[in-house]
Amino acid sequence: MKNAKKILARTCLIGALTLLMALPAMAADKVLMMATTTSTDNTGLLDYLAPHFTKATGIELKWTSVGTGKALKLGENCDVDVLLVHAPPAEKKYVEQGFGVDRREIMYNDFVIIGVADDPAGIRGKNVVDALDAIRSKKAVFASRGDNSGTNKKEISLWKAAGGDVPEKEAWYVQTGQGMLATINIAAERKGYTMTDRGTYIKYADTLKGNPPLKVLVEGDKILLNQYSVMAVNPKRCTSAKYDLATAFSDWLAGAQAQELIRDFKLLGKPLFVPNAK
């Protein structure tokens, strides 16, 4: 009888130890790694959404915030499971190349050109092409991220639309190689201009109690639409990618709860993003 009790106790102990050893692996299986653009992080949107996602699904969301170009590269290198980015032409090419799957539009805002209130290049109220042409003509300071981010890709396309090459060799064209908030601050220090997504601008204005030195001078063109999309890393290329978790995240983002949360996310009483999942 004593031997039977000892065997039972030993069996229970081994079972408990086995379960304890398995728990970290089980927990790791429920962690989703995402690469995303700086604007979703800098604005606080992800900190706002992540707890709701975890509560709804039991999946922990972790993310790396970089420019869209670098985010796509992280997916290509199989370093993450899912991407939340904002450069549609690059994203579509990425899917065509077999790196990403199940691309899905989630939300949008728009790009704006901001600058000091006295507006030395006289761009206030102009369309974006005429505004960039005026900045070039006046050789006014323009701070560019210069980092292959979604914002930088868009800016480059707009310079070309304005009828010339990107002025990367001009002294007045400052390539920061930094994120959006840092680039805005450099533009402010140099009393110049920059292009930003509206969400990051509102966050910037909020940190300065609604009275930032740089004001929105150019806005409203259809060409300034800034679409954000989610897509999974292709599990056929990256066998370690957690496609099931990525799909759960995509489905949740496109669902009613997340879309309402995105709609309600505001600073200074203004929405930073507009949900548009289909």
Automatic annotation (TrEMBL):
Q: Has keyword Membrane?
A: no
Work out whether the entry's keyword set contains Nucleotide-binding.
Answer: no
Q: Where is the signal peptide?
A: 1-27
Designated name of the protein: Tungsten ABC transporter substrate-binding protein
Q: Which organism is it from?
A: Desulfosarcina widdelii
Q: Which Pfam families match?
A: PBP_like_2
Q: Which keywords annotate this record?
A: Signal
Which SUPFAM superfamilies does the record associate with it?
Periplasmic binding protein-like II
The PBP domain covers 33-255
